[in-house]
Specification:
Largest sheet: 7 strands, mixed
Helix content: under 10%
Shape: globular
Number of helices: 0
Distance between the termini: 40 Å
């Protein structure tokens, strides 16, 4: 059983910052790629940021220069530092991880709400 537990969401003023964390736990052998997706009301889920086990990253154009993704392999944890937040960043943010237990499968967290509003 593998679980992804997110934390760090909340309400923030435009221009503010938040840091999301997501920790993978359970019968894990190796965590490969990790990432963050988001889904705003009435919209499809979209990729926000992705990081490989080796640290290579990819960010959506809409967040480049504002968001940073990082990870701690020893803790099986991925982080999303979000700066200069805009109202259009408001969404439920979901953590994702490719985890090898006896085979490699994708797992999702339960989601954490980020609201950017004055």
């Amino acid at each position: 059983q593998v679980q992804l537990v997110e934390s760090g969401g909340g309400l923030v003023l435009p221009g503010g910052s938040l840091r999301l964390s997501c920790a993978a736990s359970g019968s894990i052998f190796t965590v490969y790629a990790m990432g963050w997706h988001r889904q705003a009301p009435g919209k499809q889920r979209e990729l926000v940021a992705f990081i490989s086990r080796g640290g290579s990253t990819n960010l959506a154009d809409s967040v480049k220069g504002r968001f940073t993704i990082s990870r701690d392999n020893a803790k099986n944890t991925v982080y999303l530092q979000m700066n200069s937040l805009k109202p259009e960043d408001t969404a439920v943010y979901y953590c994702y991880a490719d985890v090898y237990v006896t085979t490699t499968m994708g797992y999702w967290g339960q989601g954490t709400q980020v609201t950017v509003s004055s």
